[in-house]
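dumping this here so i dont lose it again. seq + smiles for flavin-adenine dinucleotide
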Amino acid sequence: MVLAHPHMDELNVDLRGARDADFLAIGLGATNLMSALFALASGRRVVGVEMRGDPFLGVHWNIRENVYHQFGLIDEMMLWTYGEAGVPRSPVNNKPFRLADKFFSTHTVSGEVTADEIIDGYDNALHLVGTIQHIEFIDDRYRNGIPNRVVTNVAPPPLPTHPDWRKIRTNTKAVLDGPSTYQAEARSILLLMQRYLEAIEQMDLEAGRETPRVRLFTHHRVAPGDQGFIRLPDGRIRIQIETLQEFDYQGRFLRVRLPGSPIIDLGVPKLFVIAEGYHSTDAERLGFQQHDVAVDHGDGRGSVVAQADFVAVDMMLRIDGRLRRRISSTFGPDGCEYWLRQIAVGHENAPEIAWVLVQVPDYKVFDPVAEGMLPEGTESNSPEFVAAYRHILYDFFLEQAAGILELSVHELRHVTVLYGPKLFSLVERVGDDPRIAVNGVIAGDSFGNGHFLTSGGAMTGMCGHATRVLEYWQTLSRGVQPEEAIVRLAAGIKADTDAWLAVSAPEFSEAVPSNFGAERGEKVIAASGIDPAVRAKLLEANRRERHSLIPLDPSDWRRLVFRNGRIRTMPLPEISPLHPDLRVPPDSGADLGGNAIPLQRTGEVAVRVTEQDGAPLA
Ligand SMILES: Cc1cc2nc3c(=O)[nH]c(=O)nc-3n(C[C@H](O)[C@H](O)[C@H](O)COP(=O)(O)OP(=O)(O)OC[C@H]3O[C@@H](n4cnc5c(N)ncnc54)[C@H](O)[C@@H]3O)c2cc1C
């Protein structure tokens, strides 16, 4: 007799191909989706486990050219490995599903995208990414106590016309030292990869294959307690998962096992990779530990913890295909100068995409009582306190955003906000060894993370760690023993993350933006006369006044924090040659730079603007 059950659909899971996969990806984000595609294209059987359903990450990524060529390689490998009949086709027009063409093509254009429409083949006019056409650096740091502005424009990288696997760099330092070529919503790129895997899974299930090439469990996680990871006597790990029911409970997403659902045994994979983003509870369960990264900035203070605080906002404002960075001076209560960084990221032909992130000075606390807005003793969880806190935070953001966007605070206040302001703390953390079992490693941000201003996290996972997974399968195919292959894989993951950390270190203390690429960074130094030996003043993490901040909560990307207003479709104004602090009357009280003490506004002012450099860098 069949018993009726409220979740019969979810419980009647077809488990063909779920056990003993070649590759088991735990956490389907940037790293593991690309790794899974490489494993699949290498003729390996893939199982994926993800707890949040479809991709959701709302940030806008700057993307290196490598990713395009990698997609091209996967398209080619799929044809070599499975032939035309083994490659998915568009459900709308039956054309072959080619990852590289959906990502970027000279036959399609950039714009405001609905990723699934492009991926399905319904929208054949657009590709997923925008190209970067403007790379700008504004150096607004004071010189000798005087406001000073230097603007440097560097040429955008030339666009590849077609994917070419020979241009793939497997050295992560070389990838990160190259400039970003594209911009795209992280979610769109993640969706592209996940939909491809889903298409293969569907093809194989419909064809009645006993062992489909791909199986995805996207509302699942490794079962808790002793049931999830079971260590075998030979050191390999067997993995069991549970089906999740997710619900919003008092403002937080909670997940519990779907009532009545059984544990699903995934058996013993040849290789499993845990890449669950920053802070992986599964990695922790397996004994993996991370430690804070300490960086010696060569300023005589020895090593300090690499940490910085930022406010992130997604607003509806036209930035175009632009990557703009700014560094400015601010002065703390101690009278010392601190440097603040801001970044603005847009999207070609999409006037409503503007990601603006601004750094918070180490000494700044958004405390309404300390700022005199509320009386002593106001409860920090009272509505008045929270309202005043949000007000101060947003005002701070607007001042800083005005500095990089060259718009007034007043104008910005009327622009629609889709996300934020969200205060988050960037703390670099890394493990010692990615290897956690005879058959498993930790990768992506779960192994270690650098500074997001390098635009390097997804690149490290997708171009670094994922190509190591490809090499792992190639190594096995050459007859190398699994033990040696996984040792090489783990060493490769560590080397990639170390490269990201090395590129990140200067972002805490030096002025040159690393996500322009090394060569363009040199140009910025040459044009602006920045002395690379001069360092920012940093406070030791344990001396900072605000240490209770947490990194961004991934679930936040699934909520829209909305301030309604206008979509600003006019282009950004030309960057003024004048420093913001020289544009306002000294007694007006307004201060676009967000400085905490009155500023000196007299004396010689050095303002230089370099010419737009039209010549492409090699
Ligand atoms: C504001 C901001 C801007 C950024 N800009 C850039 C940029 O321009 N370029 C760039 O390269 N990088 C950028 N990054 C960094 C990039 O987003 C991350 O480094 C990258 O997403 C990390 O990839 P990952 O695979 O390690 O993890 P994620 O992409 O975070 O994926 C982890 C996945 O694991 C899932 N998961 C978590 N726990 C579990 C569990 N227990 N069971 C099952 N699944 C689980 C999550 O739901 C998620 O889908 C930026 C980051 C931020 C915050």
